[in-house]
Design a protein that fits this description.
Blueprint: H1 11-17, E1 24-27, E2 30-33, H2 38-58, E3 62-65, E4 69-73, E5 79-82, E6 86-90, H3 91-95, E7 103-104, E8 110-114, H4 119-133, E9 137-142, H5 149-152, E10 159-165, E11 171-176, H6 194-198
Parallel strand pairs: 4-7, 8-9
Antiparallel strand pairs: 1-2, 3-6, 4-5, 6-8, 9-10, 10-11
Length: 200
């Protein structure tokens, strides 16, 4: 008996074959639907609106959305298509080709992932891919404290991790809990506490 192996999709093939309705990522050559609970969406939207308010208040050259998909690569060189829960993108990059679909090949400014049952993707795979791509700032919002104890400590409690790219191209992590104000390089004047985000 011969096993039939399905060929892995490239990023361009993913864009061609991806269904128009719903949200999808390209993971290990396969189209994977990204579904979320209302609670997850509430947290993600709270962050998106907070970023949008800050962009408007300071007239920053960014746009923020939750539909952008961009190409990343694994350590093995496999193309992935990632769609963060919130993406902050340079407005000039976004508007360079406004008739294009929302797929990007350039690094975005800031990616936010709100954890769910597949939390390893956010803590391990996406962290590596976003660092490799050179995304300057990456947030992991673990509002359910669902990640491993090696990240969350004991007892596990909800937390916001902010990863900032250093001059060597590696992420440095800072964690924020409870009433601690989240420090963002992209939005240095942002007045947002971990608790506000985690209980949105």
């Amino acid at each position: 008996m011969t096993a039939i192996t399905k060929p892995k999709l490239t990023f361009d093939q993913f864009l061609e074959k991806c269904p128009e309705k719903g949200f999808y990522e390209l993971v290990n050559g396969e189209i994977v639907e990204v579904r979320s609970t209302r609670n997850h969406d509430d947290v993600a939207n709270f962050i998106l609106f907070a970023f949008n308010d800050e962009i408007r208040r300071l007239n920053l050259n960014y746009i923020v959305n939750n539909t952008a998909v961009f190409r990343t690569k694994t350590a093995e060189g496999i193309e992935q298509g990632r769609k963060p829960d919130a993406s902050v993108i340079d407005k000039d990059v976004w508007r360079a080709n406004r008739s294009a679909y929302s797929a990007l090949e350039e690094p975005i400014q800031l990616a936010v992932e709100v954890t769910s049952t597949n939390w390893e993707d956010d803590y391990i795979d996406k962290l590596d891919e976003y660092e490799r791509l050179g995304i300057p700032e990456y947030w992991i919002v673990d509002y359910l404290a669902i990640g491993d104890r090696k990240y969350l400590g004991t007892p596990k409690e909800p937390i916001v991790f902010v990863y900032l790219l250093n001059t060597n191209g590696k992420y440095e992590r800072t964690s924020f809990k409870s009433s601690e104000r989240i420090i963002s390089r992209t939005f240095p004047e942002l007045k947002l506490t971990a608790e506000q985000v985690l209980t949105a």
